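Budget justification aside, the reviewers requested a transparent look at the raw inputs and outputs of the sequence design task funded under Objective 1. We therefore reproduce one unedited record. The lines immediately below are the structure tokens for a 193-residue chain.
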């Protein structure tokens, strides 16, 4: 088990791991000016959205597809958006919804085929993480999709409960209870490894 045995230790591990990944992304995003065009937004937000999708679907190629679809949808709706901040929210919601669709399709496919374990993480992405961070990312992959979404959006996306509720289409109370259950489950998973 990594960290201490309390739920608070697991939460700190999740926060450190996903916060570390968020810091890598925001450092490059903050260096650029606020997005003004779709092209600027694509350059500044693409990798952040890909990392978000990877944390949700656990497959880099699929994550790229999800993000590409999100940007395609944004392009179609560009004229109806208020500002760049609304565009980022649109992208985040589209990535979450696209990831959900992927996971539903995977579940359906598994019902008709024997399950297989895909080697989703690249050696480079894991090499950048410490052993503790690797353990947290591996444990996140074992959580149910909704729990994983809430933790990733909270600690990687650095979103408030209200923003998570909006991105996932659930109530703030559901976000709070899901996060609590997810941290408990994560603690159990990490203890068992």
């Amino acid at each position: 088990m990594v960290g201490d045995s309390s739920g608070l230790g697991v939460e700190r591990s999740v926060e450190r791991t996903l916060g570390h990944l968020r810091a890598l992304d925001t450092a490059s995003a903050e260096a650029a000016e606020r997005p003004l065009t779709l092209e600027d937004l694509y350059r500044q937000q693409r990798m952040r959205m890909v990392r978000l999708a990877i944390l949700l679907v656990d497959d880099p190629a699929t994550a790229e597809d999800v993000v590409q679809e999100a940007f395609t949808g944004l392009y179609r709706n560009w004229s109806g958006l208020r500002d760049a901040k609304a565009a980022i929210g649109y992208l985040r919601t589209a990535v979450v919804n696209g990831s959900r669709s992927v996971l539903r399709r995977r579940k359906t496919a598994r019902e008709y085929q024997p399950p297989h374990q895909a080697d989703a993480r690249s050696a480079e992405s894991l090499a950048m993480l410490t052993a503790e961070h690797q353990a947290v990312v591996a444990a996140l992959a074992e959580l149910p999709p909704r729990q994983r979404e809430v933790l990733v959006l909270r600690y990687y996306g650095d979103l408030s409960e209200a923003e998570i509720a909006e991105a996932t289409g659930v109530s703030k109370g559901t976000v709070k209870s899901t996060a609590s259950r997810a941290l408990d489950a994560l603690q159990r998973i990490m203890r068992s490894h």
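The first helix runs from residue 7 to 31. The mean pLDDT is 82. Computational costs for records of this kind are itemized in the attached budget.
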